Amino acid sequence: MKHLILVHGRDIKPAGTALATLGKRAIVRGLQRAGRADVADRLEGGGIKLTSVYYGDVNNGIEASYHAKTAALLTAQNDPIYDFKPCFPIAALDEAFELTDKLRSFNKVAYRHVLAIAEDWRFWDEAVHAASMFGELFTFGLLNSLFEVSIKWDLAVYLTSQRVGSEIRARLQDVLKQSLADGDDICLVTHSMGCMVAYDVFWKYSFRSEYEERRGEEANPVKLWLTLGCPLGEIGIRRNLLDAVALEEEKYPRNQFLDWINVHAEDDFIAHVPNMRSSFSAMRAKGYCRSITDRKIYNCWHYRDASGGQLVANPHDLYGYLMNQDTAKIIAAWAD
Prior knowledge:
InterPro entries: AB_hydrolase_fold (IPR029058). By secondary structure, this protein is α/β, with parallel strands linked by helices. The chain contains 15 helices and ten strands. The longest helix has 20 residues, at 162-181.
């Protein structure tokens, strides 16, 4: 069966079921925008299975514990299965979705229009925060403790805390292991921090003894790994992934996916090292996957800031990536 698995990224999140619903809605609209209503209908009708891998409760807990302003934004309640209940209200995201969805096509002209009507925070706030974190992770040593990392961010905590990292990876492992065992034809769509999670899971499948069944000629690989707003090109990130301490001959996931397509948006501050084909050229050269391709798009997501009320552009947003017709065409090609 065709199985689309979606893994979100960093920052505070709405409830798990709400995120899954909005993610599916964004993919459907992207497919319709791409002229592939046939694939959108299959997805909505269950002909293509969609699973959302969610660890937003972990993100929310981390961010709320470090930032009082962030904690104040978590005014909704998460699904009963999650221990940390406060979450971001979906209404704000629904409003931003409707605002962004008015654009007929996501291209350079549309993006420039968004920048003309919205506050351009591309090089402030999140961008400055990201640059600081990447710089700190570049020098982060294996003997350092988590408490020596001054950038207390969920993405950094994932990389530097074994407990948090294991908890988050387990969310993807539980879904992926069963789907692969069932022989599903999988398109794994990961965004931002979710790309790091997937990479680490792929590496564990390649080398850890408890995943022996994931190796060998009989193992079923993920057919397409689609990364959106991916930070894996950052050296600071790569120095803190699970394979960072491995011997050279044991680096990189191997034979866990066939094709890797990396989609990066113009001005995406998390994906500002956008070329995965070059960054992971050794994987291709050694035959650990069939292909790695990079593609550029325009992410036109914009929203009304909760505190100031002004329109703000965010070229890193997950839903903006999924609503884009060029992203949707990649998913449609896999689904055919």
